[in-house]
Automatic annotation (TrEMBL), chain A:
This is ABC transporter permease subunit. Keywords: Cell membrane, Membrane, Transmembrane, Transmembrane helix, Transport. InterPro entries: MetI-like, MetI-like_sf. It comes from Paenibacillus sacheonensis. It is found in: Cell membrane.
TrEMBL record, chain B:
It is a multi-pass membrane protein. GO terms for biological process: transmembrane transport. PROSITE patterns: ABC_TM1 (PS50928). It comes from Paenibacillus sacheonensis. PANTHER family: BINDING-PROTEIN-DEPENDENT TRANSPORT SYSTEMS INNER MEMBRANE COMPONENT, BLL4140 PROTEIN. The keyword Membrane applies. This is Sugar ABC transporter permease.
């Protein structure tokens, strides 16, 4: 405002003085000029500000996308391109055979099936059990509810290492070792990977739902299970999407528990095959230089993440809306 | 009449327990029993691996951790240091990004999706393959657009420090996906009318951030703080975690591993209690809850 030259300010001031006499119509003019002045100033500031916002966002988005860009471009390179330091991003020719060797080295379909079984079963288990448990915590009053809920949240901070030894021995006596049971069954009991977090998410959403729906159903003679299944669950897609995606991704990438409970190689999950790739590629392609197998390893890494990418692309819109609507942050 | 009503209420209460039952069973089987067993184990030593014969050793395992083992304490300190450095960085960075993303900008959907993508890689084996291939090293430097020439002027030692710092930041930033998402959801929840009325009173953007956005975001900041803490302490790649796992399954010192696990767990617990107690007055809750 200070930068307005005196010659320009004067007529405006005069106009203002005149306007104050004329009453209503003048007020409109005054408002108009004030708005114009602010507008012209903030247009410039706004433009520069916006420019900065875009620059920072594009810059950081690049940092965040870098692993994927690197992975895809390297996966398509030939050994010659890899050695040529003038080629950074775009390979001279696309080496699709890297994907073939990568998938072969991973024994893709066997281990994809293992991973998919564990991940999908855990997701189904967690969505069903966590929503069921959360309904109890959110909508039914009973003595000891708060204490139990605190206890439930408390399980989130237990490091897996603290209980891994007893769990291992427990599963050994139950005969569950080297099967998917230790990885899947806890999910059906509201445990599994961060089960408590999902209970929390569902509870937050359930608490925000209106009671009238439930009351009306009860008056009509609905039992609490039918209320949960027929009335509450259909209202929870946001929480279901959030839980599904996070649970799927975490179970898919988890290697700590599978690497302890699974011992025979044909039962390994897909990511567990990645560290063995350098060795298995040596026998597969005959080359002994680690550098040359890098594109194949990147192709394999890409393939092992591809299912998650596809699921995310499909669920992405609902997922972000879901986080906002589930009342997670209230 | 009264008796019937009571029984109805009791029936409803019982329904509550039915809903909690799966969790209670799971908790008892997969949490409580192993926890108690691991306390017991931490006072014992495996005398014979074959038939898992245990020998009571009293406080020896704890003594070993704090006095005899030269690796445990330095590892512990380095893990705490990492968490102390990473957590504020993650929080400030994710809040910053989410505020930028909350603007009405073009390609918002794209940016939001992009910032969540590293979560899909997680910190599992796929990420380790990428880091092994040298992905983290020059990302931040290239991404932020620092030209190579700058490093030539800085001299080898100093440029190495900057280089390391930036590549470390990159790996930290990749972990912020969930936090950005939570902050964004929180920012969406702040009513626009607050900003409008502040603007009418002549508040600048800067003032509005400190007087409106930040106070209303404190519950989510607390949520993210706890999430980040838990995430970094229970991360599988955490060196402490790796050490405990190796002690248990490579060296077959299960008793010692359990006692270290317990020390670690108690530390996390105390830390979170401290976080909750110390932030109690700082967190602003709106509404009548």
């Amino acid at each position: 405002m200070k930068s307005i030259p005196a010659s320009k300010a004067k007529p405006r001031l005069a106009a203002l003085a005149e306007a104050s006499v004329r009453g209503k119509a003048a007020a409109a003019i005054r408002n108009n000029t004030v708005i114009n002045r602010i507008g012209s100033k903030s247009r410039w500031v706004g433009f520069i500000y916006r420019l900065f916002v875009y620059l920072i966002l594009i810059d950081l988005a690049f940092v965040f996308l870098y692993p994927f860009i690197y992975m895809t471009t390297t996966a398509l390179k030939q050994p010659a391109d890899l050695m040529d330091f003038t080629i950074k991003w775009i390979p001279t020719s696309l080496a699709w055979e890297n994907f073939y060797y990568g998938m072969k080295g991973l024994q893709f379909w066997t281990h994809f099936n293992n991973s998919a079984l564990i991940a999908v079963a855990s997701v189904v288990g967690q969505v069903l059990s966590c929503s069921f448990i959360a309904y109890g915590f959110a909508r039914i009053k009973f003595p000891g509810r708060e204490v139990l809920f605190v206890l439930c949240m408390f399980t989130m901070i237990i490091p897996p290492q603290t209980i891994i030894v007893p769990l291992f021995m427990q599963y050994k006596t139950m005969g569950w070792l080297d099967s998917v049971l230790p990885l899947v069954i806890p999910s059906f009991f509201g445990n599994g990977l961060r089960g408590a977090l999902f209970i929390f998410i569902f509870r937050q959403l359930f608490r925000g739902l209106p009671w009238e729906l439930e009351d009306a159903a009860r008056v009509d003679g609905c039992g609490s299970f039918r209320v949960y299944w027929k009335i509450i669950m259909p209202l929870t897609p946001p929480a279901i999407v959030v839980t599904t995606l996070l649970s799927l991704v975490w179970h898919w990438n988890d290697f700590f528990e599978p690497s302890i409970y699974l011992t025979s190689e044909e039962k390994f999950t897909l990511p567990m095959m990645l560290p063995r790739l350098y060795q298995s590629l040596d026998t597969l392609t005959g080359s002994t230089f680690e550098v040359f197998s890098l594109p194949v390893v990147m192709a394999a890494t890409f393939v092992s993440l591809l299912p998650m990418l596809l699921v995310y692309l499909f669920l992405q819109r609902y997922f972000i809306q879901g986080v906002e609507r589930s009342g997670l942050v209230e | 009449m009264r008796g019937r009503r009571l029984s109805l209420e009791r029936k409803k209460m019982m329904a509550g327990y039915v809903y909690i039952a799966p969790w209670a069973i799971g908790f008892a089987l997969f949490m409580l029993y192993p926890l108690v067993y691991s306390i017991w184990l931490s006072f014992h030593e495996v005398a014979n691996v074959g038939n898992f014969e245990l020998k009571s050793v009293g406080w020896d395992n704890f003594n070993k951790a704090f006095v005899l083992d030269t690796k445990f304490i330095p590892l512990f300190i380095s893990v705490i240091q990492d968490a102390l450095i990473n957590t504020p960085l993650i929080l400030v960075f994710s809040l910053f990004i989410s505020i930028l993303l909350n603007h009405n900008i073009r390609g918002r959907a794209f940016f939001r999706a992009a910032f969540f993508l590293p979560v899909l890689i997680g910190s599992g084996l796929a990420m380790q393959q990428l880091l092994y291939a040298g992905v983290g090293k020059d990302t931040m430097v290239n991404g932020i657009g620092v030209p190579d020439e700058v490093f030539l002027y800085m001299g080898p030692t100093f440029s190495q420090i900057v280089f390391d710092m930036l590549s470390r930041l990159t790996v930290i930033f990749w972990k912020t996906g969930v936090q950005i998402l939570l902050f964004l959801a929180g920012l969406q929840g702040i009513s626009v009318s607050l900003y409008e009325s502040a603007r009418c009173d002549g508040a600048t953007e800067w003032e509005m951030f400190w007087k409106i956005t930040l106070p209303l975001m404190t519950p989510i900041i607390l949520l993210n703080l706890v999430y980040t803490c838990v995430d970094s302490f229970t991360d599988i790649n955490n060196r402490m975690m790796v050490y405990i796992k190796d002690t248990a399954f490579t060296n077959i010192e299960m008793g010692y591993a359990s006692s270290m696990g317990w020390i670690y767990f108690l530390f996390i617990f105390l830390l979170l209690v401290l976080v909750f107690v110390s932030t109690r007055r700082l967190v602003v809750y709106t509404g009548e809850k």
